[in-house]
Automatic annotation (TrEMBL):
One of its GO terms (molecular function) is manganese ion binding. Mn(2+) binds at residues 147, 149, 218. Transmembrane segments: none annotated. GO terms for biological process: isopentenyl diphosphate biosynthetic process, methylerythritol 4-phosphate pathway involved in terpenoid biosynthetic process. Residues 258-374 form the DXP reductoisomerase C-terminal domain. The gene is dxr. It catalyses: 2-C-methyl-D-erythritol 4-phosphate + NADP(+) = 1-deoxy-D-xylulose 5-phosphate + NADPH + H(+). NADPH binds at residues 10-13, 121, 123, 202. Its EC number is 1.1.1.267. It comes from Sphingomonas suaedae. HAMAP family: DXP_reductoisom. Belongs to the DXR family. This is 1-deoxy-D-xylulose 5-phosphate reductoisomerase. InterPro entries: DXP_reductoisomerase, DXP_reductoisomerase_C, DXP_reductoisomerase_N, DXPR_C, DXPR_C_sf, NAD(P)-bd_dom_sf.
Length: 385
C-alpha cells in the first residue's frame, strides 16, 4: 500500500493527480489533501478518495470545510501551519502542487519525511533552490520533477553519465503571443493571456507562459535539479510542445522525451516511479502532427526570459527577488491593475532597486522574498496611479 498526499489538490496539477489515482485506486491510500480555500472541490475530492485529512490554508474557510465533511470521519484543519503539518504526516509520496512561494514551507515539510516528493511547485526551487536541495539531501528524500520539461530531462538522464552532460535544452511553446510584436502585446487582456495554445493550466503559470517568465523560472529550476552550469542550459522555442526537453551528452547524442501535451504523463511518471503505469492520455501520432518546428527565443519581445537568465547567472538573492516580484506583478495583472508589458517592467525595477547579500538560510530567503514583494507592490501602485 502506497500512502499519498496532495498539496494543492484543487488546482490544475492537483486535479490531474487525483484523476490518475481515481482511475487506479488500488494500492493507494490518500493521507491528506490541501487547498487554499476551494472548499467545495476539496471536500468532494476528499470524499471520493476517502482521504484521512482535508486542510484549507485560509482559516476563514474552515467552518465551511467542517460542514462539508460532517459525518464522513474525515479530519479537517486550517491555516498555513496545518498545511505543513499535513505535509509532515509522512506519506510515501507527496505531490507538491501549491502555486507560488506559498508552496515553499510545505515542500520543506514534505521533504522532512525523507520520502518521495513529486515537485510541480517550481517557485520553491527558484526562490530557495539551495535550501530545498540541501533539505532533500539531508533527509534522504527523493525529488521527482513533475514540470513536463524537468520530468523529460529526468527521464533522459543516465545516472552513470551525469558528468557527461554537455547541454540541457528546455523546449518552450512560446505561449499564446509567440508571434506578436511588443506593440501588439501592450493591450493583451487577462483572458487572452490565460488561454494557452497547448496546455490547460492554472492562471498564474498561464500568464508566466505568455510572458515566457515560465521558461525563465524553469531554467533556474533545472539548474538546481540537474548537474549543469547556467551556461549549459539552453532554451529552444518548439511550438507544438511534443518534445518536452532534451539532454545532449559529450559524444553528441541528444536524448529527448516526447508525448502529448498532457500533464498526466509526467505526473504518472512521478507517481509510478521507478516503474511505469498506464494512463488514458492521448498517444502521440507523429504522422498526423506532420512536422516539428523550432526557433531561437526572442529575448527582446520576451524580456522576462532575459531577466530570469540574468538572475540565474548572477545567482545569490536575484532569483528569489525575480520570483517574488513576478508573483506580485502577475497577481496585479490578473486583477486588472497593471498591463501585460508592465509585468516585466515591475520585475526589472524591483531587481534594480534591491540587491541584498546572498541568502544562506530559509529565514533569509523569506526576508528577501518579503522585501521584494513590498517593493514590487509599491511599483504596482505607481502603475495604477
Ligand atoms: P492552480 O492555480 O491551478 O492550483 C494551485 C493550488 O494551490 C490550488 O489547489 C490552490 O488552492 C492552492 N493554493 C493557492 N494558494 C495557496 C496558498 N497560499 N496556500 C496553500 N495553497 C494554495 O495551479 P497549477 O497550474 O496546478 O500549478 C501548481 C504548481 O505547479 C505551480 O507552481 C506551477 O508553476 C506548477 N506547474 C503547473 C503545471 C500545469 O500544467 N498546471 C505544469 C508545470 C508546473
Ligand atoms: Mg513546464
Amino acid at each position: 500500500m502506497k500512502t499519498v498526499t496532495i498539496l494543492g489538490a484543487t488546482g490544475s496539477v492537483g486535479t490531474s493527480t487525483l484523476d490518475l489515482i481515481e482511475r487506479d485506486p488500488q494500492g493507494v491510500e490518500v493521507v491528506a489533501l490541501t487547498a487554499n480555500c476551494d472548499v467545495e472541490r476539496l471536500a468532494a475530492a476528499a470524499r471520493r478518495v476517502k482521504a484521512q485529512l482535508a486542510v484549507v490554508a485560509d482559516e476563514s474557510c474552515h467552518a465551511a470545510l467542517r460542514d462539508a465533511l460532517a459525518g464522513t470521519g474525515i479530519e479537517t484543519a486550517a491555516g498555513d501551519g496545518a498545511v505543513c503539518d499535513a505535509a509532515r504526516r509522512g506519506a510515501d509520496w507527496t505531490m507538491a502542487a501549491i502555486v507560488g512561494t506559498a508552496g515553499l514551507k510545505p515542500v520543506l515539510a514534505a521533504l522532512d519525511g525523507g520520502k518521495a516528493v513529486a515537485l510541480a511547485n517550481k517557485e520553491s526551487l527558484v526562490s530557495a533552490g539551495d535550501v530545498v536541495m540541501e533539505a532533500a539531501r539531508r533527509h534522504g528524500a527523493t525529488l521527482l520533477p513533475v514540470d513536463s520539461e524537468h520530468n523529460a530531462i529526468f527521464q533522459c538522464l543516465e545516472q552513470a553519465n551525469a558528468d557527461k552532460i554537455a547541454r540541457i535544452i528546455l523546449t518552450a511553446s512560446g505561449g499564446p503571443f509567440r508571434t506578436r510584436t511588443l506593440e501588439q502585446m501592450r493591450g493583451i487582456t487577462r483572458e487572452q493571456a490565460v488561454a494557452h495554445p497547448n496546455w490547460s493550466m492554472g492562471a498564474k503559470i498561464s500568464v508566466d507562459s505568455a510572458t515566457m517568465m515560465n521558461k525563465g523560472l524553469e531554467l533556474i529550476e533545472a539548474y538546481h535539479l540537474f548537474p549543469v552550469t547556467p551556461e549549459q542550459l539552453d532554451v529552444i522555442v518548439h511550438r507544438q510542445s511534443v518534445i518536452h526537453s532534451m539532454v545532449e551528452y559529450v559524444d553528441g547524442s541528444v536524448l529527448a522525451q516526447l508525448g502529448a501535451p498532457d500533464m498526466r504523463v509526467p505526473i504518472a511518471h512521478a507517481l509510478a516511479w521507478p516503474q511505469r503505469m498506464e494512463t488514458p492520455c492521448q498517444r502521440l501520432d507523429l504522422a498526423t502532427i506532420g512536422r516539428l518546428d523550432f526557433e531561437a527565443p526572442d529575448y527582446v519581445r520576451f524580456p522576462c526570459l532575459r531577466l530570469a537568465r540574468e538572475a540565474l547567472a548572477a545567482g545569490g538573492a536575484r532569483p528569489a527577488i525575480l520570483n517574488a516580484a513576478n508573483e506580485v506583478a502577475v497577481a496585479a495583472f490578473l486583477a486588472g491593475r497593471v498591463g501585460f508589458l508592465e509585468i516585466a517592467a515591475i520585475v526589472a525595477d524591483t531587481l534594480d532597486r534591491y540587491d541584498p547579500a546572498a541568502p544562506d538560510t530559509l529565514d533569509q530567503v523569506l526576508a528577501i522574498d518579503a522585501e521584494a514583494r513590498h517593493l514590487a507592490g509599491e511599483r504596482v501602485k505607481d502603475c495604477v496611479a
